[in-house]
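User: Could you check the structure of this?
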Amino acid sequence: MYRRILVAVDGTERSAAALGATFGLARLTGGTIVGVHVTTESPFTEPGLIGSPVHDAFRAESERQGRDALAYVRRRAADAGVPCETILAPPGPAWEGIVATARERACDVIVMASHGRHGVAARLLGSATHKVLVHCDIPVLVVH
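Assistant: Sure, the predicted structure tokens are below.
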């Protein structure tokens, strides 16, 4: 049923909880985990800032955080005895990278954490989980 299970991770405790649920699902179905982290876009995109030291430093730090989050997924998967692959997606909106990776890797389900924002915060910040639910035809398991 769920042979390829994508889990979106961002290095937070909530995404670690989603990862735990993913291992349970993978054990139950004999599935493989596909861990994905979408690199954060640099806010320094004005003309003259792209390629600047501050832009490059931001991008390098974002990629380091992504590699660390994915290394955590690999360690936990090895400890759980669950097959795993990881992808560091290029910068962009998180929901787009998650959906694109799920489609490219032929995933059967997407597991994501909900950060539980409500009211004005949810409206202002948006929700990657909500956007994945709206824009993707692959089943999504939301861990709250």
